[in-house]
Amino acid sequence: MGRRSCWILVLCRSCDAGRFCATIWTEKQSCSRVRRGRKHLENSGPLGKGRGLLLVQGGIPFRRGVGRNIVAEDNPGGTTMLNGAEREFLAGLDAGAVERDLEEISRYERPSGSPGEAEAHAYVAGRLEAHGVDTVRTAFPAWTFAFGEARMRFWAGGREDSLPAKIWGYSPDAWEEPVRGRAVFVSPDRFPPDSIAWFADRTSPSGRDLEGRIVLSTTRSAVAIRDACARGALAYVFCWPYGDETVIHESAVCAGWGAALPEDVELYPRIPVFAVDRPTGERLIALAEGGSLDIELRGRSRSEVKALPLLEAFLPGDSPYFILLGAHMDAKHHGATDNGTGCALMLALALRFARLKKRPFGLRFCWWSGHEFSKYAGSSNYALERFDELNEHCLCYVNADVPGSKGADDFSQVAATPDFMALARRAVRDVTGQDGEHVGPVNSYDQSFYNIGVSSCFIWSSQLVPGSPHGSGAGAMPWWWHTEEDTFGKHDMEVLMQDCRLYALGTLRILEPGWLPDDGALWDRLIGELEKLDGRGITLRPVLDVFRRNRGRLAGKGGLKERLRAIRRLNQALYCQRAPYFQDFRMGDGYVPGLSLPLAALAGGGLTDKARFVLDRYAVAQRNRLMVLAKELESL
Ligand SMILES: [Zn+2]
After folding, report:
1. 265 within 8 A of 243, measured Cβ to Cβ
2. 403 CA distance to ligand 1 middle (Å)
């Protein structure tokens, strides 16, 4: 053939997954202009994963099968194509090396601060240094937890039995002195909602109705556990409500975050929290509801201040500005997909970008610890220790967590701050052919940099397709999430390489000459969110006036330095409640959380006088905080 056969099959937005019509784009090798042809394929068979559809762009397979999100026909022709340099760059990602790296990282069990994690860090550092990339390994203090053996015995109908259980992180130790009591099932709707309202009073309107009880429930809300404790419960058993898998998922329940403030110390559980799988949970709940069930729980658990490691690699650029990229190395067990895949992805990116000749900005890669056993302590501590350089020069934070899992063909949730949304969405389209939608504020996934005002570009990427057999029922995570079963082989190299290309392409485009963040989108989102809140019990008109006035004056104007100064304040207003040099804790999700959360709680009713008073005054203080940020923008 005289020219390379490249074709792209684009499905109509209106076609369902069973029958489809399509536009076929063909492309000459030498030119990036797209020739469109249209062909209706109405008689084709049903589409699905593994049905032999391979979409190819520039020789790079970028999508196998067809998920539910498809490229819209109204894509402006040519604008979503890769240029020659991008194709060449992406073709330089080595899938064989990524899989070998993943296999090596997944060999080790990697709890935070463990020898296995240190081995995995050493392996990644060795790979980088062999390719001439300098690395730095340091340590930082973290408030961590560790858990071990757990046992559950129970008595029902005169019979004694035992069932498998695990103890969750930050629980008080219950090994030498087990907890024993009458079990009671409390449905999630009998706990207060996971809202700031609980923090404003901290006494339960239900009184001490769970005195001496062991609570069974299907929610893992931190507020529910605090409420159970306030109502006198001795322990809390989280009954996994999703899939039928009999492995028990491990986690921790607390509203704290990383490098905590003194007042946050109270946010850690004061009663032990255990977890059981769904079949066990259903059996226990039936026994508790059917008569008398007594449970004895034992579990080894320890919380302590411990030094955790950090591995960094830095690729310098032609300016002091840099992109921060991170993935957590620590894992509940072998953590092949959570987060061996993310660590291998970051290694692949570091090696590929090291070969890029011209970098206008630096790239700083971090392999975090303290994510799984210390609530994002690695990223949170980094925000604390590197505050000034992040504030002055960090362009954005790029985070990879759980990419490349089996069954995760869905790239439709694009998680980024508004100023990076267009870039992220375009990269998703160009790499996967899927049309992503903006995901609202994300209050997890090592997003420890909002207080500084640093934007995010990719918080996660591939997600399980809803209904996937690899999912845990209707839950968002795979059935092996946070268990011993997250081992090498749970990944899908095709998905993982799509993730790699997506992150590489998005990052490469930030390095394009003349790139500037889309600060206008951030201004618009903030003003839009403030307009929604205005008049809901508080007037924001004066604050809005200052923001609107300065949007016209500042948005889309100036160079990087000027825009970053504005972006810092806009992110702080949109995502945070606390000052830049502190860390917000996890209290709920919402834009402008300092206002949206208390105003929603006040509008919801059912509050004590004390909670109403506290939340009302808090909202006024937050309004004042927004005015300070608006006036700082005015002085730019
Ligand atoms: Zn993870």
Report:
1. no
2. 9
Kindly report the CATH number that applies to the domain delimited by 147-303.
Answer: 3.50.30.30
Nearest-5° angle of CA 268, CA 585, CA 311?
Answer: 95
Beta bridge mates, 161? 154
In this predicted model, what pLDDT tens digit does every residue of 389-432 receive, in sequence order?
Answer: 999 999 999 999 999 999 999 999 999 999 999 999 999 999 99
pLDDT at 43 over 80: no
Angle at 415 between CA 381 and CA 51, to 5 degrees: 130
Distance CA 351, CA 313 (A): 10
Greater model confidence, 456 or 19 = 456
Would you say 184 and 292 are in contact if contact means Cβ atoms under 8 Å apart?
Answer: no
**Cα gap 210→183, rounded to integer Å:** 10
Main-chain phi, psi angles of 153, to 5 degrees? -115, 150
Task: Output the CA 347–ligand 1 centroid distance in Å.
Answer: 16
Tell me how far the alpha carbon of residue 328 lies from the centroid of ligand 1, in angstroms: 7
Is there a cis peptide before residue 75, judged by omega within 30 degrees of 0?
A: no
For residue 391, report the distance from its CA to the centre of ligand 1, in Å: 26
- What are the φ and ψ backbone dihedral angles of 189, each rounded to 5 degrees? -75, -5
Residue 148 CA to ligand 1 center (angstroms) comes to 20
* 615, 601 contact by CB (below 8 A): yes
Q: Are 341 and 461 in contact (CB under 8 A)?
A: no
User: In the numeric block, which tokens belong to residue 318?
Assistant: 């032609």
Class of domain 95-143+305-470+477-510 (CATH, top level):
alpha beta
How far is the C-alpha of 518 from the C-alpha of 338, rounded, in Å?
31
Q: How far is CA 16 from CA 38, 43, 139, 450, 485, in A?
A: 18, 13, 52, 39, 35
Which two structure tokens, joined as six digits, stand for 470? 């690899």
* SS3 of residue 365 by DSSP: strand
Structure tokens at 143: 């408030």
Question: What is the Å distance from ligand 1's center to 338 Cα?
Answer: 5
Q: How far apart are the first and last CA of the chain?
A: 59
For residue 342, report the distance from its CA to the centre of ligand 1, in Å. Answer: 8
502: CA distance to ligand 1 center in Å? 18
Task: Sort 359 into a burial class: Cβ within 10 Å, 0-12 / 13-18 / 19+.
Answer: middle
Delimit the domains of the chain by residue range.
Answer: 6-81, 95-143+305-470+477-510, 147-303, 519-634
- Measure 548 CA to ligand 1 centroid, in angstroms: 38
Which pair of tokens denotes residue 451? 């207080």
Q: At 418, list the tokens.
A: 């508004």
Ligand 1 center–CA 401 separation, angstroms: 5
All residues with CB under 5 Å from ion ligand 1: 338-339, 401
Q: CA 117 to CA 123: how far, in whole Å? A: 10
| Mean pLDDT (the chain, rounded) | 87
User: Ligand 1 mean position to 32 CA, how many Å?
Assistant: 38
